[in-house]
Amino acid sequence: MSKIVAVFGSSKVTPDDPWYREGEKLGRLLAEAGLTVATGGYSGMMEAVSAGAAAAGGHVLGVTAPPVFPHRDRANPHVAEEITADTISERIHRLVTVADATVTMPGSLGTVTEFLVAWNTNFVAPFRGAAPHLQVAVGPMWRRLVDHLVAEFGADDSYVTCVDDADTAARIVIDRLADRSWHTDRP
After folding, report:
1. CB burial class (10 A; 0-12, 13-18, 19+) of residue 26?
2. pTM of the full predicted structure?
3. What CA–CA distance (Å, rounded) separates 84 from 116?
4. Rounded CA gap, 63 and 46, in Å?
5. pLDDT class for 95, splitting at 50, 70, 90?
6. Average pLDDT, integer, range 7-25
7. Which CATH number belongs to the domain containing residue 90 in this structure?
8. What is the rounded average pLDDT for all residues in the chain?
């Protein structure tokens, strides 16, 4: 099975938004490199990434939470494999733990939560003898958040790579996942 990249982002982004197009590009680039894409499975950035990956012939996992989102009938049409969760915490946990890497695109509170869970999971991984997963965040808001959390809470920013665009995020993920030793210089 190919390596899995979980992508987080806003459910509110629409096809006319430049970030939606960045999401499609990210999904396409990851799939062209032979990576499986996992998202929350619904609309917005999740659909953009899924559409890009599916158009490139990639496999798309959608981790949905029907009890949490009863107004959403099903996963977006680009999801090839749907995994359901009963709670939002379970959904986020499944996305983070199934992934070899995470990419966080712009979003709101839910996306911030996913980003922080991925970061904390990386932080505690060495406590159990595990290597942290690659974590990339796209957009200037993530660098500001990371800087704030470092300054105010002493968070370790070595677990997060902040970049400006989908091209850079995809290149980093593709290169690092091809190199199994990428995490050896990490805490």
Report:
1. buried
2. 0.94
3. 21
4. 10
5. very high
6. 97
7. 3.40.50.450
8. 94
The domain of 83 spans: 4-185
Report the C-alpha gap between 116 and 110 in whole angstroms. Answer: 10
Flag whether pLDDT at 106 surpasses 50: yes
Spatial distance between the Cα atoms of 170 and 161, rounded to a whole number of angstroms? 12
Contact assessment for residue 6 and residue 39, using Cβ atoms and an 8 Å cutoff: yes
Query: Is the pLDDT assigned to residue 56 strictly greater than 80?
Result: yes
Q: Return d(Cα 152, Cα 147) in angstroms, integer.
A: 9
Question: Do 153 and 178 form a contact (C-beta atoms < 8 A)?
Answer: no
Q: What is the pLDDT of residue 179?
A: 75
Q: How far apart are CA 35 and CA 164, in angstroms?
A: 21
How many structural domains is the chain composed of? 1
Q: Alpha-carbon distance 64 to 134, whole Å?
A: 23
In this structure, what token pair is assigned to residue 47?
A: 């659909």
What order do you get walking across the sheet with 36-39 strand by strand? 81-84, 60-64, 36-39, 4-8, 101-104, 134-138, 161-163
